[in-house]
Amino acid sequence: MKNRTQITVTLLIFLIFLVSLFMGGCLEQSSGLGGENETMQKEEADKNKDDPSGRLQTEAVDLSDIEAGNLSLSGNYRLDALDIELKAPQYKLPLQESDIVNYREFSQKFLTDEAAMEKLKENGFVVIPNPYNPREEDITAMYDRLENEGQQIFITSDTLLHLYHVQFDESMSQVEQNELYGILWELDKALLDASIEKYNNASGEEKEAAKRNAAYFAVALSLLQPREEQIKEIKNPYDPEAGMYFDPAAKEKYQFEIPAFVEDDVKAELSLIEAHEGFDHSPIFLYKEDYSQYLPRGHYTHSEILKNYFKAFIWHGRMSMLLKGKLIPAENPEKEARIQTIQASLITSELEDNPELLKKWERLYAITAFYVGVSDDLGPYEYMEAMESVFGNGSKNFNATAMEELKIELAGYRSPEIYGGTGSGDHEPILTAEQADELLEDTKGFRFMGQRFVPDSYIFSRLIGPYTKEYTGNPEQVPFTYIYSDYGNNRGFPRGLDTMALLGSERAVYWLDELDDSSYKNYSLRYGELDSEFSNFSAADWNRNLYWSWLYSLQPLLKDYGEGYPTFMQTDAWQDKAMSTSLASWTELRHDTILYAKQTYGIADELPVFGDNPAGYVEPVPEFYNRLLALIRMTADGLEELDTLDEDTARNFESLESVLNKLIEISEKELKNEKLTEEDKYYIFKFGEIIKLSSSADEEARKTTLVADVYTEPNNELVLEEGTGYVDMVIVAYKLPDGRIFLAAGPVMSYYEFKQPTSDRLTDEKWREMLEVNPPERPEWTSTYIS
């Protein structure tokens, strides 16, 4: 990657953050924790690894040259030390009915199915449909029912992950609706006005570039602008529709006119966006674009403001001003690419010459990058530096000679690592890894607010497509397959298992082999390269932003639980269940960040006395709780420093911190084979009521039924959907220090993976209809623990 001599404030927020982690250090220690002893503090010199992506590792920088101002985010990830001796009491499998103290009560209430009973005896646990409500969408509801009936309660990792998702999603949607929408409007309006002025005063190719920029920003403003049916006056702040519509004042505030000289192109572009049917040639940029991506999904269906924000932001995230003309079907592709480069130069110059405008861009980029990460594509920062190299401090003349020099300069900058579908179908068939790299180079260019580099999309781009051509196993046993010609890859689609495997799940590797989903030419080679790359990441690498840190929090759930953990956790079936939990949480992550992630394609004073009787059991995964606690602190502290943390959200995060601290304490006792105190027991018994304090989100926001498309295969016009469904019940057998074995129950998330037509990408609302009428099958490997 080209060394940068000047980098503006926001881009360095994350570099400062990482360096502060190295300098301050944060150490997670464990004794006997399955070999996961890891030092989280590394010297900066050890970070100079070979990284072809340019985003997986961070450049070393001279902090003395940085003026971070009010946007400095330092030391926000703090992982406390753990020191646990693993001595959880064991029992023999298969279990006998006579071994379980409360067997009769549970068997009559929950274990009426013989197959479920057999799985419980075999593995020490089983997952069954929710006996209280098979279509339950609130993960906290089961705790209340269990408490009311006096049943043994099992507190699950699923619950905490879902609660974090709720807070992550709510905090993001609030800042988007209350602040980012307005910033984006102001940016687009100012840049439209500047483009019109430039068009009126320029000539030649510069005039044409200004014209296209006017069209570009007019499209964005048209997508942001409230339509009549989106405006509604809500006088009662407690009205369920409060916040769902634009206020009547917005009609006057968000007004603009499409310039007459670009009206036809703008309307043609808007027509394709509103139809969102699939790939078509852009009237403004000429190359092919996937207009199905413009359907608002995720939390962006919850309000009219968010719907419009989604469309405009994805326009800015996807449309590229290309450096090369290879993907532009035109009479003179190189001329078109030169004009697009002039477009990017004009936008960059306007930002550079207008500090207040640049601050708005940086504010928008900083907040979204803290959640999801930095752009996979070049943007204003890189173009500012390149233009300085070419033009110096003098005037800028965007003639053909200068543009050629600028393109040569920018050629030395990084290429994107994830192919986002630009110009799909307008390139030669991709049959080799070299051709795939060339295609990525052809998509290099300027994106105003580029979609973000995320590790799971990077994994998909490297494992699937031209990198794994030719299936070498038995064609009659190919699972999850859709053959397509362009890439020549029989597998066609990635799986969530690929991501889990590279996050450290040996069980995912097992299932990829068992399901014949790794028998592809070059798959092992590419997997090995990725495994080497990911295994070298430090804790600081993993905690560069909230997206990466969320994935890092899942890793303790994916390990092989060995001696010293409860018996049920040492089974292969439990590894499958934990993997399902992780996949469901990953689905929620992709759901929450669907706009930004680049797609590849207090306790009562008087406590009841439990005596020798238990109240239930906490899933003993203190490493997971510890990492999730650090993630929550990082989220709250970072948002506070960015001045986007409101009082309710801060209170919710503080409540979650308190919950996780208590769960760490209790689970440590369980693993050490220590008796729980009366307070511990009461905490488990009242857990349903306690966690209600950790979220002020409404019923809609708390639902577990979510969907996210994570991969697009354009040739067959299919997308890979990841979904979470209704809440299931898990029943586990746990042993007390006195030798008694009890059953306890708790809620777990359900996970789905399936293909869907590109023209019918699913919203949460459509997914819920599908779940109710015709749900897809669960992944085959879940049969080991689900009855």
Question: Layout of helices and strands, plus pairs?
Answer:
Blueprint (H helix, E strand, L loop, with lengths): L12 H12 L78 H7 L4 H10 L1 E4 L12 H8 L4 E3 L1 H45 L2 H21 L25 H4 L9 H13 L3 E3 L6 E3 L13 H15 L2 E2 L10 H21 L1 H18 L7 H12 L8 H12 L21 H10 L2 E2 L8 H9 L32 H7 L3 H9 L8 H13 L3 H4 L3 H9 L17 H21 L23 E3 L3 H20 L5 H25 L6 H8 L1 H5 L7 H4 L3 E8 L4 E7 L3 E8 L5 E8 L2 E7 L6 H10 L14
Parallel strand pairs: 2-7
Antiparallel strand pairs: 1-10, 3-4, 5-6, 8-9, 9-12, 10-11
Report on the architecture of this protein.
A 3-stranded antiparallel beta sheet has the order 1-10-11. Strands 8-9-12 form a 3-stranded antiparallel beta sheet, with helices on both faces. A two-stranded parallel ribbon has the order 2-7. With 787 residues, it is mostly helical. The chain has 27 helices and 12 strands. Helices cover 45% and strands 7% of the residues. The protein is elongated and about 90 Å long. Helix 16 crosses helix 17. Strand 10 (728-735) and strand 11 form a beta hairpin.
